[in-house]
Each structure stands twice: as structure tokens, then as C-alpha cells.
Amino acid sequence: MEQTNTKAAAAKMTLREQLPVWIVVGVALFINFLAYGLHILPDVVASIARWVGLAGLAYLSYRRGSITTWILFALVLGAEVGHTFPGGADWYNVLSKVFIKLIKTVVAPLLFGTLLVGIAGHSDMKAVGRMGIKALIYFEIVTTIALVIGLAAINFTKAGVGLPQMPSSESLPEVRKPMTGPEIVLHTFPENIIKSVSEGEILQIVVFCLLFAFAMTLVSPERRRPFLTFAESLSEIMFKFTNIIMHFAPFGVGGAIAYTVAKLGLGVFANLGMLLLTLYGALIVFILGVLLPIALIFRIPLRRFLKYASEPVTIAFATTSSEAALPKALENMEKMGVSRRVVAFVLPTGLSFNLDGSTLYLSLAAIFVAQAANIQMSTGAQITMLLTLMLTTKGIAGVSRASLVILTGTAASFGLPDWPIAAILGIDALMDMGRTATNTLGNCLATAIVGQWEGETNFTDPESGDIKV
After folding, report:
1. What is the dihedral of CA 293, 294, 297, 299, to 10 degrees?
2. CATH number of the domain that 270 lies in?
3. Interatomic CA distance for residues 170 and 84, integer angstroms
4. InterPro entries, per this entry (predicted)?
């Protein structure tokens, strides 16, 4: 009891120490509002205030000492560095790309090890099949709701109405013919696992691992055991590898934000602002109106979930890459208390089938294009487009600039012009942050829900003794 009181006292002291720093940060923000919002103070005063505020955030991050806190600090620092020193944009991008490349080296061996241990270690393929059906049902329901929310949001705000045709130096992505149902099925199965790994085809890697694990269950235990031991060692080593890479995460995240701001400038928030606000407003409605109620229905402990989901979501937001957040999400969801079998199956599968943020964005952006071109789409036409997107969004994982590719193809198939999409390119990086973070958040929640559904969770905290609500 005395030790508990000592910890509580230490925590209170920490809060008292933090208060003056947060006041400094708040004053810095207020000074910037006076300088840029009301034009009362000179810009140099605002710049000095921002750096003082950053110093305060650096102190808080140092005292806190967690990677998540440093990542959040890097987000703010990166924006300031990109704004103040835009000439170094290419070098900022190097930091971001190095981090993403390091993360991509982990994905395939980590999936291979965790899936083999989770499935072959239990030898229950019926349970895997049942889990897969439940996961796919959940994915389809939630992504369909996301599409509907996107349609409703853009029809409510009418952000595209009256948009002038803007010249753009950006080139549109090459139109890719939307995948048909048979093509999606064929694309799921690998023809060469090395090729699948090199091209980052997560779903094909998962299918190969599932078949490999099933084959392992068909051999005798003494033959299976050596390879299972190897897979266990591989997965543990790759988790440690991930932890090493995560120490570089603040630099990668900061570089990604600095590059975005250096290239686009902070003024990009003013361009097409209504579309940006519509998207983020719709994402908030989706998170609070769909994901939160689902989490409560399945009795997911929200505080515990946010503790373990915040880091991969932050990485996804800054890097605009769900794949970059995948290794940390795999590790954290298992730490949260979801079984390795569920985590290793649901998270990578969700990367292809549960893109909540991307599907919401696509339905919203497609109607935005029609509004900007002054093309009236009937309710029936919008529903037809929604059904088309329900199919085509299942094939976008692993495609560069995937959402824009699908948006361009969908617009072409419905006879819509492409100049509004060229206008969207100006703020696509900012929209990509929100939709990718929502994708990762939705997949983390889907993992916890399928785990609850299957009875393969243990949300007891060994430190506090808290049990799932």
C-alpha cells in the first residue's frame, strides 16, 4: 500500500511539473493566433514563440520517455522545420523513406513466423476458417457503413459545388481498370512467394502462410516441432527487430511531416478547405458513431485499447502507410491481450479488406468530382457508384497511390472529368494522413473484436489487475 501511495505521489508531482510547461505551450499557440489569425503581432514573434513551445514539448517528451510521446513531438517539430526550412525537403523525405523501408523488411518474416505459430501451433484449422468468415463479415459491414457516411457527408456540405477549374502541374495516376470479382479472387493467391514478398502483396503472403501452416498440421508432431520452434524464434526476433526500428520512428515521422509541409506549405489548409473539413468531419463521425459503439457492444476496454493502438495509428498518420504501422500493430495488439493467432490473421487481412478510411474517402471524393463538374447524379446513380466502390476497393492494397488510382478509374467509368481530381492532388497528402490513420485504427479494433468474438482475449492487466469491462 505504501508503495502504491508513493507511485501516486510521484505521478502528482509529475503533473505539477508539467503544468508550467503546458502553460508555455498554450501561450505560444495564442501568440501565433495573434500573429497569423488577427495580424496583430509580427511573424518573427510568432516564430520565436513556436520554438519556445517546441522546447517545452521536448522537455515533456524527455520526462515521459516513451516512443509514442517522442513521435507526437516529432509531428509538431517536423511541421515547424518544414515550414521554416523548406529547402531541405528532399532530405526530410529521405528520413521518412528510410523508416518505411526498414519497416517493410520486417513485415514478411514477421507474418510468416506469427501465422505459423498461431495456426500450426494449435492445429485447429476449423477455428481458423470460422475466424476468417467472422472477420470478412465484419469487414464488409463496417466498410459499407463507411461508404454511406462518405456519401452523406459530401451531399450535406456540397464541398465541390462552385469549385473553379484550377490549373495543376500534378500528373494524375495512370487509370487502372477496376478489378472484377474473378480478378480479385485470382489476385489473392500467390504464384511466386518471393515475388509476393518483393511487391508487398500482404494478402498473398497471408494465403501462403495459411496453406503452409495447414500443411504443417498434416505432418507428425516430431516432424513439425523443429520448424515450429524456428517459427517461434523468428517471430520473437522480428518483434525485437521492430523495437529497434521503432527508435528511428520519431525521425521518420518528423521527416514525413516536414517533407509534406515543405512541399505544400501551411497555406494548403486554406485551399479546398471545405473538402478537407468534410473528410475529417466524416472520419470523426465514423469513429465516434460507428467504431465506438461497436467497441462498447463487444465490451472492448477503451482505455487499454487506446493505449496500445495509439502508437501504430500515429505512425500511420504521419507516414500515410498502413504497412509501416503493421509490425507495431501486430506487437501491440498481442500485448493488449488478443491471441497471436487472431492478431496474425486479422490485421494483415484487414489491410486488404478493411480500409475504412480509404473507402469513406473514395465515396466522398467521387461525388465531390461530380459536384465540381456540375454533374447532377441521381440517388440511384450514387448507389450504383457505391456498389462499384464496394468491389473495387477490395483490390487496392499494395498499389502505389491506391486511392487516387481507384478514384480516377471510377470517375472515368461514370463519365466524370479528371480536372477536379487534379485539384484534389494539392491536399491529397493531408487527406491521406486521416484516411490511413482511420484504416489502422479500424483494423486494430477489428482484431480486438474478432478476438472477443472467438473468446481468444485476455484483457487482464498484470500490473493493475484491471479486467475487461
Report:
1. -100
2. 1.10.3860.10
3. 24
4. Na-dicarboxylate_symporter, Na-dicarboxylate_symporter_CS, Na:dicarbo_symporter_sf
94 and 255 Cβ atoms separated by less than 8 Å? yes
CA–CA separation, 293 and 460 (whole Å): 22
Q: Is 338 helix (H, G, I), strand (E, B) or coil?
A: strand
The pLDDT of residue 201:
75
Question: Are the C-beta atoms of 301 and 459 separated by less than 8 Å?
Answer: yes
Note down the domain range covering 22. Answer: 2-65
Tell me the pLDDT tens digit for each residue of 118-148.
Answer: 777 665 667 777 888 888 899 889 988 999 9
List of the chain residues with pLDDT < 70: 1-39, 41, 43, 121-125, 163-181, 183-184, 264-272, 391-402, 404-405, 423, 425-426, 461-469
- For residue 80, give the amino acid letter: E
pLDDT at 464: 38
Measured torsion, CA atoms of residues 447, 452, 456, 458, in degrees rounded to the nearest 10:
100
Instruction: Identify whether the C-beta of residue 429 lies closer than 8 Å to the C-beta of residue 321.
Output: no
Model pTM? 0.71
Q: Which of 17, 49, 65 is the last residue of a domain?
A: 65
Check residue 468 and give its pLDDT.
Answer: 39
Q: Are 238 and 103 in contact (CB under 8 A)?
A: no
Block residue for cell numbers 495516376: 173
CA dihedral 443, 446, 450, 452 (to 10 degrees): 120
Question: Alpha helices of 393-461 — where are they, by DSSP H?
Answer: 402-413, 419-424, 428-454
Instruction: Write out 252-321 in H/E/C secondary structure.
Output: HHHHHHHHHHHHHCHHHHCCCHHHHHHHHHHHHHHHHHHHHHHHHHCCCCHHHHHHHHHHHHHHHHHHCC
Spatial separation of the C-alpha atoms in residues 254 and 317, rounded to whole Å? 11
CA–CA separation, 293 and 304 (whole Å): 16
